[in-house]
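in:
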């Protein structure tokens, strides 16, 4: 895409959002969020596992709209410094007006800034440890350029959360369906006829994800169905675009949810030694997403050496903090099965397991300070290397523990 085309499309997108700010002027700081972010607890479990200070300290909201995302992050991270930017002056004006009401929101710094400008990092600042960019890059003419700008704003050990449209987004079919009835997708015009056609679409898609467009608000339809461009891309395309900008893929929240049932019985042994990013690509091949919730960092994630049992023992296990749990009192019958429950309210997840006592003992020592080898030396029980590897793989992929590379 040429620079001229980028500029023309960017101007049209800007005019669209100036006319219809999203999620709307009535969506203030006290209004519950209308979309689902990846839970911060899941993000930090992968990004900063086991750390007491895992919560971000300096947050950039890249493409904040009318402020709801920044307000949600303030509630989640009350002590963080938050800078929120959008290229729509009207959206920023609405956000600033909304932040005046709740006192805890007044410290958020709202700025007008364009993700595609060369001066972006100089305008918004650098050394953020966390960047949230949700529902933005799917509508930007040059998402690769925007991502390169974001790398300049992030600390070397920081993280980027990216929420972007997938190949099954509702607009994929809608943008093919509506022109057959004479609609110009470049410009949204509300009408009874449009709502009737959307009702027809919903009737056809009544059992599919992404239906019920006929009841969507005008601001949503204007940006998420109509508009000059929408990037609805598979996971692999977004990962590659981010990689070219200097980011490394850590995981997909949607794929993590899809994987949980597969981490039962003997299925994990079929997946070893695939890394978490590889598993996400595998799940996407079976269940293409309508919307991706992705975690990236500038540092490449380390994948434990699952095929080298000897080297694996030098890695350090650490409980991630994603789950609340109470391990039963210690027994000396190391092979006895014990009932244990792991609960994660943030992800609405509960794992009810029967675990052998030796595995519980391993978890009791999983604070990151000792390698697996040292922990296992204190357990006077023979553990099959294959079984150990499989159990560790399950715990690691479900983010109960993180295996950290030798120090």
């Amino acid at each position: 895409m040429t620079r001229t085309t980028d500029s023309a499309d960017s101007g049209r997108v800007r005019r669209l959002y100036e006319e219809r700010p999203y999620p709307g002027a009535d969506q203030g700081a006290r209004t519950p969020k209308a979309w689902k972010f990846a839970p911060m607890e899941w993000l930090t479990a992968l990004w900063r596992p086991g750390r007491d200070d895992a919560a971000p300290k300096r947050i950039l909201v890249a493409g904040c709209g009318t402020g709801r995302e920044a307000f949600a992050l303030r509630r989640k991270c009350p002590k963080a410094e938050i800078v929120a930017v959008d290229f729509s002056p009207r959206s920023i004006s609405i956000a600033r007006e909304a932040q005046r009401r709740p006192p805890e929101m007044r410290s958020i710094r709202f700025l007008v800034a364009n993700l595609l400008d060369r001066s972006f990092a100089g305008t918004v600042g650098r050394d953020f440890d966390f960047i949230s960019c949700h529902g933005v890059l799917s509508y930007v003419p040059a998402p690769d350029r925007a991502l390169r700008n974001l790398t300049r704003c992030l600390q070397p050990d920081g993280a980027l959360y990216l929420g972007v449209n997938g190949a099954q987004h509702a607009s994929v079919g809608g943008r093919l369906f509506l022109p057959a009835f004479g609609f110009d997708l470049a410009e949204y015009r509300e009408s009874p006829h449009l709502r009737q056609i959307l009702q027809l679409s919903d009737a056809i898609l009544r059992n599919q994800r992404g239906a019920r467009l006929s009841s969507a608000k005008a601001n949503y339809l204007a940006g998420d169905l109509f508009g000059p461009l929408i990037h609805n891309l598979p996971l692999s395309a977004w990962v590659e675009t981010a990689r070219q900008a200097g980011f490394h893929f850590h995981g997909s929240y949607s794929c993590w949810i899809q994987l949980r049932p597969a981490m039962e019985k003997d299925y994990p042994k079929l997946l070893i030694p695939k890394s978490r990013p590889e598993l996400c690509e595998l799940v996407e091949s079976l269940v293409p997403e309508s919307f991706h919730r992705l975690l990236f960092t500038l540092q490449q994630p380390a994948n434990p050496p699952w095929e080298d049992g000897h080297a694996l023992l030098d890695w350090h296990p650490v409980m991630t903090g994603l789950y609340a749990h109470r391990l039963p009192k210690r027994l000396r019958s190391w092979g006895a099965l014990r009932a244990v429950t792991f609960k994660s309210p943030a992800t609405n997840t509960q794992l009810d397991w029967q675990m052998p006592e030796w595995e519980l003992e391993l978890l009791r020592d999983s604070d990151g300070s000792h390698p697996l080898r040292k922990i296992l030396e204190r357990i006077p029980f023979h553990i099959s290397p294959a079984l150990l590897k499989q159990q560790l793989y399950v715990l690691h992929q479900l983010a109960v523990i993180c295996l950290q590379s030798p120090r």
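note: The first strand starts at residue 58 and ends at 62.
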